[in-house]
Amino acid sequence: MRIYENKYISVTSILGLKQPFNKKSFTDWCSRTGHDPEAILSTSQTLGEKVSEAMDNSQKGLDWLTAPPIDVLEANLLDSVKDFLSRYELISTEGVVKCKEFNYAGRYDGVIKDKESGKVFLSDWKTYGAWRNKEYKRVSSKIKKVREQLSLYAYAMEWEESLAVVVFKNDGTWDMEELKFDDKIIEWTKTHQDLILETIKNENSKRASKV
Question: Higher confidence at residue 33 or residue 103?
Answer without folding.
Answer: 103
